[in-house]
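FIELD: query
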Amino acid sequence: MNLDWYDWHQRELTPKRLYEILALRNAVFIIEQHCIYQDVDGRDLVGDHRHVAGYLDGELCAYARILVEGEQLSIGRVIVATKTRGMNLGLQLMERALSSCATHWPERTIHLSAQAHLQSFYGRLGFRAITQVYDEDGIPHIGMDNAARA
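FIELD: result
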């Protein structure tokens, strides 16, 4: 198994990289989860946003987007490809995303809009719920942050 991790500034996204990212997000968030929403939201290629990506044998298998808007820092679009689930890539991905945040924006609180069923997963990474469960595009979500660790 050959696993390679990348942490790209949005300016480093080539058309091929962006296509792979959008294809994975579409396959899981829209097709697999039956969630019709506008994934291409104009935020992938602006500002200081970053993209953390894991490739297994040359194929994109894990991805997260880090958005920086003023003092607001958030990790979203956290995804592991269907065929690589169960390989602990979600944890590795989040550790890479958190490391990127610590490198580029030390001591800043990180926010998540997490799918509610993943609350305990994110809790193990130091996140705590800051909202009640709410509906986002037909899927229960919960707002979380890691302020206690910042």
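FIELD: remark
The first strand starts at residue 3 and ends at 9.
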